[in-house]
Design goal:
The protein has about 450 residues and is mostly helical. About 85% of the residues lie in helices and about 0% in strands.
């Protein structure tokens, strides 16, 4: 029999959690791609409405999911201590937050149309965005509830169900779009509003399927989870807010900087905006894998700390970091090796009308390849630090690095020094290059500090 070393064991444990989550992340991206393609057949106004409306809505939802994502490290830590009841109770409080946070999300979405009109948007575009949001917002409780159940299953290292549900929802999403957008199977054509309603229906399918899985699977303590959602627990709720609010802030900062960069690209020219959309989508696809690894790192670090094993927790963080960096290094090589072929997936690279977009995208994809490793480093380090319940300083690093250095530096290079679209992306790359080593060093420091505690003792984190 061949002995398996501790690093090999940790790699297997991390990959077992991370691989299904990465696949689930990619499935969600696939649904977004399908939405774009199907709405695109309605024309430019509908495509812009669904694109901008979806961007605003899911940016707000993504930030709110950050609060709920605190369920993962808190539940994983409780499981490490052997307290399964506490893990289920915390997940139930996550469901409570999902319901409560759905209301401000709905109110914010409802006000977007009038806000855009006041900012000078064309009436037809603002009205179309409002109709899209009026449809998609019906899925807000389900989208946030799904995040809570997903967090519990991640803490339990049972992520395969999350992957299966999302993969099954990809064809369901396409079918619902086909029925509701264009009017099939006896339904009237709802155009862009149909796209919003289709997304809302898919969110309810996602939540319902995962809730059914939790309810029917032995050992998941389903009754405690759903019963806890109706019985507020002040201590757990306080812990979720304390840990989750900085996570939400960092998510908003991270996503927001790319939204802001997109808006600035529109001030350069249409070629820059189109190239930015293509390369940002490519970078988002590669990012889904380290994002899954980061989620696994949260689970592994929190669980081992709960079990009073700081050496294993440190190993879990470093193994996850190595996996994330290795994947993104391979992604960088791919982007460098075949940039034109990658761009060709999105548009005809030989068409004369596309040459401006292609030329700009070629320059941006080179920069994107350079920051792949930095992007993977910061993503995984943040995930591992959440396992250590360290979320405030990473948020501060993000504010300074992404906005103070990245966006401001990109704006300066693009507009004051005249480097245009590449200058904006060089600024973003610089921001990542600053944040990534800071987060990596922070993770190493957290690992060293917890190892100073006697391993047999329980570790009480702040």
């Amino acid at each position: 029999m061949v002995a398996i070393g501790p690093i090999s064991v940790e790699i297997r444990a991390t990959v077992a959690v991370a691989a299904p989550l990465a696949a689930a992340n990619l499935a969600q991206m696939a649904m977004g791609f399908i939405n774009t393609v199907m709405v695109g057949h309605l024309g430019g106004v509908a495509l812009a409405a669904a694109g901008l409306g979806g961007l605003l809505y899911f940016t707000m939802a993504f930030a709110l999911q950050g609060i709920i994502s605190a369920v993962t490290p808190l539940s994983a830590f409780a499981l490490g201590t052997g307290d399964r009841d506490a893990a289920s109770r915390i997940a139930g409080q996550g469901l409570t937050f999902a319901l409560l946070l759905a209301f401000p999300l709905a109110l914010a979405a409802a006000s977007v149309g009038s806000l855009l009109r006041s900012l000078g948007y064309e009436a037809a575009l603002a009205e179309a965005i409002g109709r899209y949001l009026a449809g998609v917002v019906w899925g807000a409780p389900a989208l946030l509830g799904f995040a809570a159940l997903r967090s519990l299953l991640a803490a339990l290292s049972r992520t395969r169900a999350v992957m299966i549900v999302l993969l099954c929802c990809v064809p369901a999403n396409a079918t619902l779009n086909w029925v509701l957008i264009y009017g099939h199977l006896g339904m009237p054509p709802l155009d862009v509003a149909g796209a919003g309603l289709a997304s809302a229906a898919v969110h309810w399918l996602m939540f319902g399927a995962l809730a059914l899985h939790v309810g029917l699977t032995p050992g998941l303590a389903a009754r405690r989870v759903f019963r806890s959602a109706l019985a507020p627990h002040g201590g757990d709720a306080k812990d979720i807010v304390k840990l989750g609010a900085p996570i939400a802030g960092m998510m908003a900062l991270e996503v927001g900087v790319f939204v802001a960069a997109g808006l600035l690209m529109g001030l350069i020219d249409s070629d820059a905006l189109g190239a930015n959309q293509i390369v940002l989508n490519v970078a988002s696809i590669t990012y889904m894998v380290p994002m899954g690894i980061a989620q696994a790192a949260t689970v592994r670090c929190a669980f081992e700390l709960g079990a009073g094993r700081p050496v294993r927790a440190r190993r879990a963080g470093l193994v996850a970091l190595a996996l994330g960096v290795s994947f993104m290094a391979a992604a960088a090589i791919l982007l460098w090796s075949a940039p034109r072929a990658i761009i060709g997936v999105y548009l005809d690279v030989d068409a004369p009308a596309n040459q401006g977009v292609v030329a700009t995208a070629m320059r941006l994809i080179f920069i994107a390849a350079l920051f792949q490793v930095f992007d993977g480093t910061q993503a995984v380090a943040v995930g591992a630090l959440r396992g250590y319940r360290d979320t405030k300083m990473p948020m501060l690093f993000a504010a300074i690095g992404y906005w103070g250095i990245g966006l401001f530096g990109g704006w300066w290079l693009a507009f004051r020094l005249g480097y245009g679209a590449p200058g904006l992306w060089w600024g973003l790359a610089l921001g990542l290059a600053v944040v990534a080593p800071l987060l990596g060093a922070r993770l190493l420091r957290a690992g060293r500090q917890t190892m100073m505690i006697v391993p047999e003792r329980r570790i009480v984190l702040p």
